[in-house]
Every structure is written in structure tokens, then in C-alpha cells.
Amino acid sequence: MSDSINDDDLICVYCKKIFQSSPLTLVPCGWVICSSHFDEYNGILVCRNCCDLHVVYKNECFSTKSIEIKYENYKLEKSIKQIKTDINELEQIKKEPESYIYEHFSNLINQADIQREQIKILIDQYFDRILDYLNLTKEEHVSKIVEKTNFQNFDLESFQNHIEIVKNILNRNTDLSNDDLDTYSIIIGSYKNKLKDILKCLTGHRNFELTEISPDIECDNIFGKLIIEQKQKYPSSKIDLNQMENEK
Fold it and tell me: Whole-prediction pTM value?
């Protein structure tokens, strides 16, 4: 593998980045792009680089061996650089492992605090919208009380007299038939509905009610949860590097 690979050979003409997935050569124009771009458009895309726009199908494209080899070499070089960086970090951690642990969990604690504050803000914003609407609606209905003629003109004394009449009839007649009792039950029910209707006219005959908090809220799904993952132990490589070096 060479010490350095020319990144210009690895640039996708579609996204202008180093290949993010296996490179594919377009047919018939010959441009090379990340194969993943086809996945974004169900295996079909329009070539952006040709003067005459044309459709390209993934199943008609092919892989160019020389470009694939350069891409694989690039990924290996990148992995080796990352391993060297990881080694340097591990050397520093070995000097002060306590600091690493403190920093790791401090970051998690800070993240939890930030998410808690974000949730508080969202809850406040949600209930502020409800409170603003209720306050506005309250003032609107208060300002229209004089317009509620059904409420203003309702004769409460006359209504009470009707109730007393029904009450007296029931007290005097203890042997009423079931049909008579059903009739008076309907009359009393209509009186109750009349009272409700008078009250509802104050709120425009609309019922306002705030539901209770659901006991089935999945906090983990809404707020985020702490995941404790058991890290996988990777098997040691059984490749004999010395033998490979001697075979070259």
C-alpha cells in the first residue's frame, strides 16, 4: 500500500465528497459516484454531469477494478490513522484512568441535565399555549355576557315554581302508575337539561375540559433512556503478519 493516496481519484462527482460507499461507474457516460446515491432514488437517478440530462439505472452500471482497489486502500489507510489516534488516546488514559472515568460520566450527567431542561421547556411551552387560549377565551365570553339573552332573561323564580308543583304532585300521589312515574321522570330530566343549557350559553354552548395525565406515558421513549451496552470482545486476529511480510 502506498504511503499516500491521491484523494482526487476518490471524489464522487455526484456529492463532491470522497466515496461514502463502493464506487460505481455510470453507463454510458463513465462518471464514478457513490453506489449509495442510487438507494436514495430506488436504483434510478438523473446524471448531473452530462450536458444532456439522461437517466441512469444502477443495474446497468459496473465497478471499475482500479478505482475499487484505490478506494479499499484509502479505507485501510484511514483505519490505520484512526488506530494510531486511538493508541495515542489510550496512552494518555493509562496515565490517568480516573480522569477518563470522571469525564465519561460527567458528560453523561451533563447530557441528562440538558435533556431534562429541554423537556421542561417543551412542557412549559405546551401548557403556556393552553393557558393563553383559556385566558383569551375566558375574556371573550365575559365580554359577551350581556349578549346572552337566554341567560339574562331566564326566570329562575318561575322555574323553581314548576319544580315545586311537580314535587307536590308526587308527594300527594303515592300510588302513581309506572307510566305516570316515567312521565314525571322525563319532565324532571328536561328541567335538569334546561339548567345545563342555560349555563352552557355562557360558554357558547361549548364544553371545555382538561383530560388527566395518562398513567401509560412511556418516559423512556419521550425523554430518552440510559442504555448500558455490554461491549463486544473482538476475537484476536489469527493472520500471521510475519509470514505475509516474508511472502512479499
Answer: 0.54
What fold, for 7-95? Herpes Virus-1 (3.30.40)
What 39-45 contacts at long range (C-beta under 8 Å, 24+ apart), as own/partner pairs, is 45/14
Q: Is the CB of residue 46 less than 8 Å from the CB of residue 38? A: no
Give tens-digit pLDDT for 38-49: 988 888 888 888
- Angle, in degrees to the nearest 10, between helices 97-143 and 65-95: 100
The three-state secondary structure class of 148 is coil
- Bridge partners of 199, per DSSP, are none
Identify the CA nearest to 188 among candidates 170, 174, 200: 170
Q: How far apart are CA 126 and CA 67, in angstroms?
A: 54
So where are the chain's domains? 7-95, 107-143, 145-229
The cell numbers describing 222, all together, are: 419521550
For residue 194, the tally of other CB atoms under 10 A from its CB is 13
CA distance 71 to 77: 10
